[in-house]
Please model this.
Amino acid sequence: MLRNLFRRVTDLLSGPGEATDELFEELEEVLIASDVSARVSALLVERLRAAAREGRVRTAEGVRDVLRSQIAEILSRHTAPLAVSSPAPPLLYLMVGVNGTGKTTTIAKLGARFQREGRKALLAAGDTFRAAAIEQLELWAERLGAEFVAHQPGGDPAAVIFDAIGAARARGCEVVIADTAGRLHTKRNLMEELGKIARVVQRELGRPADESLLVVDATTGQNALTQAQQFHAAIGLTGVVVTKLDGTAKGGMVITIAEEERLPIKLIGVGEGMEDLEDFDPAGFAAALVP
Ligand SMILES: Nc1nc2c(ncn2[C@@H]2O[C@H](COP(=O)(O)OP(=O)(O)O)[C@@H](O)[C@H]2O)c(=O)[nH]1
Ligand SMILES: [Mg+2]
Model:
């Protein structure tokens, strides 16, 4: 599933080459081209150069091994497990992110996961901005046999979440997974709307959402970093879901988010099917990047 992510990096570090200055220069460029931020690319290469100076690596293959463990170290520094139980039900997941990143699909995958475990899920149509978004989520709820709460298009998303929490309690649902809009007339509106949702959750549950997960599309590269910064500032994210790692993604964005934002990556999307959602495994991901 996660093949070819760091293709250019691994190609460069394959074969019998020596760990020369030219190799490190080229590696830095290729890391940047693979969506690792310039700062993190420089940091990684600087550590590799130090390892070479100290005689700890001599060959391209050696660089590859050290790079893999450095990446694993960065990725495991800010991990946190996905909250799967709550002190007082319902467990509440708030899914945020710009349009098209895979929010609704990820909600369906998460709903499917809970339902498979025999835990009743309620999907809340907090993306009231587009009628199609409400219908798409309703269809998923029907397919999964999950509960569903929606208002009219254009309604107040915070009111949807309020009703969803009430409905979950009344219908004995263990988990509420709430969709939100990815685009409003202005970005300020969107962030204010998310703030209002967060206040309703706090008031109704007596705690923040158990997960406020940003969904980012791995194929959008460095854009994802800006999205993480903006959404984190607006609602305080508990983690990130990186989708579409099965496609043309280069993968470096995962390292960039972990290192620059210090946010735990909790889940990865590796396809469009309901089973194509995996818990994030730092060492496994590092090995997939640099096999
Ligand atoms: N290949 C692939 N496609 C995905 C993944 N997650 C979502 N998609 C697709 O991305 C598109 C947008 O997804 P959607 O959930 O509607 O995005 P939203 O606008 O954020 O709610 C759809 O065609 C999904 O099937 C993934 O992990 N891999
Ligand atoms: Mg959607």
Notes: DSSP finds eleven helices and eight strands in the chain.
